[in-house]
Amino acid sequence: MGAPFTLTLANIFMWKWEKHAICGALESHEIYGRYIDDIFFTFNEPKIKIEAVIKKANDFHPNIKLEANIGSCVSFLDLLINNKNGILYTSVYHKPAAEPCVVPFISDHPRHVFSNIIQAALLRALRYSTTLDIFEKERRAIRLMLLYNG
Fold first, then answer.
1. Where's the Helix-turn-helix domain (predicted)?
2. In sequence order, what are the beta bridge partners of 76?
3. Considering only Cβ atoms within 10 Å of each terminal Cβ, which end of the chain, N or C, has fewer?
């Protein structure tokens, strides 16, 4: 565990880095987001220009090395973003290696934990789904996860 001020210093450093390396290269209509050390941005330019922005960001400091995921379908944290003909669609992202597990009902957790799991999963599906069809697919996945876990 680090010093209490470590997170603040890291955020100051990342703010300076993103202003220099990323935000200056993005147009005002582009989308940019960062959570701790994960970043996401849209960029409607040729791939070579995206690679130049990433190289500039990597050259800013020797400890920063971005791994680019360039494509029309990318994940950011637990969100899947899909570009179909210029329209962004979002849904819940499930890591391929993660199994659909929740806390077993026979565990010693307080009972309210189990209803919170269902509520949180449905709320995430509702917030992240851009269409009713995407929401219905996620709702079915939640139902199967709950059936799978008993």
1. 102-150
2. 79
3. N
Angle (CA) 74 140 117, round 5°: 85
Domain that holds residue 35: 6-70
Alpha helices, H only, 79-131: 112-128
What tokens does 137 get? 């697919």
Is the residue at 1 inside a domain? no
What's the pTM value of the predicted model, to 2 decimals? 0.77
Cβ within 8 Å of residue 82, ≥6 positions away: 72, 73, 88, 89, 90, 91
Start-to-end C-alpha separation, the chain: 37
Domain final residue pick, 22, 48, 70: 70
